[in-house]
Amino acid sequence: MGDSSRGEATKVAGGIVEHFNDPFIIDENEIFISLSIGISLFPDDGKTIDILMRHASIAMDLSKKVGTNTFEFYSPTKQKIKMDPLKIEMELHKAIEQNQLLLHYQPKINLRTGHITGVEALIRWNHPKWGIISPGTFIRIAEDTGLIIPIGEWVLYSACSQVKKWQSEGFFIGVSVNLSQKQVNCSNIVQTIVNVLQTKGLEPHYLEVEITESMTCNFEHTISILQQLKKLGVLTSIDDFGTGFSSLNYLNKLPIYTLNQSFVRELYNNPSVEEIVKTIISMGHSLNMNVIAEGIETKEQLLFLQQHLCDQGQGYFLSKPLQASKLKEKLDEIQQVVKRHGISEDIRLRIWYEELLNQAKKNLQDTVRLQQGMTFKFKKINGQFVHTLSDGELLYRFGFTPAQVVGKRLDEFLPCEIALEKTAYYERAWEGEDFVTYEDKINGIYYLASLRPIKKGGDVIEVIGSCVDITARK
């Protein structure tokens, strides 16, 4: 593919896969065709056509094993590890004993400022014969054999040790570590984390643990672990949110700090996925959570996520996983990516200011709705008093909803005789009388109402009213 970037290849392959989702019509018959795509990149995977084609064919074979209608990039590691799980298990025991494991760190980027907000620790296996091995090759075997427990503990110690080293160099960022199902189910996982933090002398808020959404199936145990970690000050997050089970039923009960989601790959290929991503971001914000988008591999994906106010991002377009020393070397370069390729600063600020304003309005509405009394506003339009706001618990107890009052005159939701009586009080307030009060009863509830005019330049532009329940006094 020439010197095309991984992101461009992802976009092209994703588009091809999307086109094959629809059937072909042959003699009025719908024919569905599945495909598997293998990708090799020049010059990383080869410098001649023959080598690139051979490597692309290897990647295609792997794609077939993964499933239909998908694509895979060539990986020399995946080609080398063609052995039975028992062999890998035996070698994995040696890896722990002989210190063959290492960590790479992938930055998490603030999509507003471009600054690094933290890193995710990603394990690698540096085998003396096979070279660098990705976790996809050995993690499942480690989980099945129980080796994930000592490996996971090693990751915690190594990641926290690296953060402390960075701090001694004046570089203060947190690290996130993935916990496996077996680790979460382990009875002493919380104590293990406590021991790691105490041994390394690391403050808890510099550590974040990630669990996959499917782990929350064992709800009671998972929430107990997360609550204990929260009390310690450790941050927590759900990885790949939206790909698991009935998350919405319990999400607001979990002490979650961040929601991660991995739908990014399909952006611009699938309109329904775009809606899902926007919904996840909005839902996360409504629950006062940060949303991290994983797998950002193109400029278009970055722009989409910025425009829809995603908080943080991660992916090869921003930075690939790096060794600790390389990360510090490339720090300035990484933190320029969003500024160079993202939306301009003035547009970014405008979008965020609009979001802050909308959030403030929503908070005000929620506050009014939750109050025990009732708040309302009205203006005089074409000689008629029209309500512009009405909400609060008392409104519903009166038997009304905001939709029945807002935009309406008194006589449109009250009997004419009562509406005429209230209009006289409304008129007094509109004429500028500072404090107008009256008492009445609706739906068996006695209430006290007060009206206060809002003035601008000496003229009344609006009247704000409030009602409280005084039934107990009667």
Plain-language structure description:
This protein is α/β, with parallel strands linked by helices and 474 residues long. It has three domains: 6-73, no CATH class; 76-362, TIM Barrel (Alpha-Beta Barrel); 371-473, Beta-Lactamase (2-Layer Sandwich). The chain is 43% helix and 23% strand. The protein is built from 18 helices and 18 strands. The chain has helices at residues 6-19, 49-66, 76-80, 85-97, 135-145, 148-168, 181-185, 189-200, 219-232, 271-286, 299-307, 324-329, 331-334, 337-341, 345-370, 393-397, 402-405, 416-430, and strands at 24-26, 29-31, 36-39, 70-73, 101-110, 116-127, 131-133, 174-178, 207-212, 235-239, 258-261, 290-293, 312-313, 374-381, 384-391, 436-442, 445-456, 459-469. It has an eight-stranded mixed β-barrel. Strands 15-14-18-17-16 form a five-stranded antiparallel sheet. Helix 6 runs parallel beside helix 8 (189-200). The radius of gyration is 30 Å and the shape is elongated. The mean pLDDT is 84.
Question: What is this structure's SSE topology?
Answer:
Layout lengths: L5 H14 L4 E3 L2 E3 L4 E4 L9 H18 L3 E4 L2 H5 L4 H13 L3 E10 L5 E12 L3 E3 L1 H11 L2 H21 L5 E5 L2 H5 L3 H12 L6 E6 L6 H14 L2 E5 L18 E4 L9 H16 L3 E4 L5 H9 L4 E2 L10 H6 L1 H4 L2 H5 L3 H26 L3 E8 L2 E8 L1 H5 L4 H4 L10 H15 L5 E7 L2 E12 L2 E11 L5
Parallel strand pairs: 3-4, 6-8, 8-9, 9-10, 10-11, 11-12, 12-13
Antiparallel strand pairs: 1-2, 5-6, 5-13, 6-7, 14-15, 14-18, 16-17, 17-18
Helix pairs in contact: 4-5, 6-8
DSSP strand (E) fraction? Answer: 15-25%
Q: Tell me, what's the shape? A: elongated
Largest sheet: 8 strands, mixed, barrel
Low-pLDDT stretches: none
User: Strand sequence of the main sheet, in spatial order?
Assistant: 5-6-8-9-10-11-12-13
Question: Helical element count?
Answer: 18
Evaluate the radius of gyration: 30 Å
The CATH superfamily name of the largest domain is EAL domain
